Amino acid sequence: MDLKECVQITDSTLIQLSIHCPRLQVLSLSHCELITDDGIRHLGNGACAHDQLEVIELDNCPLITDASLEHLKSCHSLERIELYDCQQISRAGIKRLRTHLPNIKVHAYFAPVTPPPSVGGSRQRFCRCCIIL
């Protein structure tokens, strides 16, 4: 089910999916900026989660935290999770998920650490990946 960029998707939607879609295998929620850990909790406890859900895409979901990964630990069929631009997801959270699902493919991106302002330098750098023009 592709719900990518459906900006009206909320936790209530995920509750309904968890109840009424027991054979859901692939779910894209990328850019659904209103969903939270609570919605993922319902999805992780739903009928599809334990035996059916293979792929979940959560790219650019700013309210998702490591708690969501905890809720997905019981999804034994989960093969892949997308977490690009989820600013509240940590490497430690992904590591904990992998202890329960060792074969899962996790696609995530972590922005480079912003260095401290240079002492006495004339140009301040903002991050290593930015080019100051």
TrEMBL record:
Q: Pfam families attached here?
A: LRR_6 (PF13516)
GO-annotated cellular components: SCF ubiquitin ligase complex
Kindly list the biological process annotations in GO that this record carries. SCF-dependent proteasomal ubiquitin-dependent protein catabolic process
For this protein, the record's Gene3D superfamilies field holds: Ribonuclease Inhibitor (3.80.10.10)
Out of the domains of life, which is the source? Eukaryota
- Please name the PANTHER family in this protein's record: F-BOX_LRR-REPEAT PROTEIN 20, PARTNER OF PAIRED, ISOFORM B-RELATED
UniProt-recorded name of the protein: F-box and leucine rich repeat protein 20
Organism listed in the record: Pipistrellus kuhlii
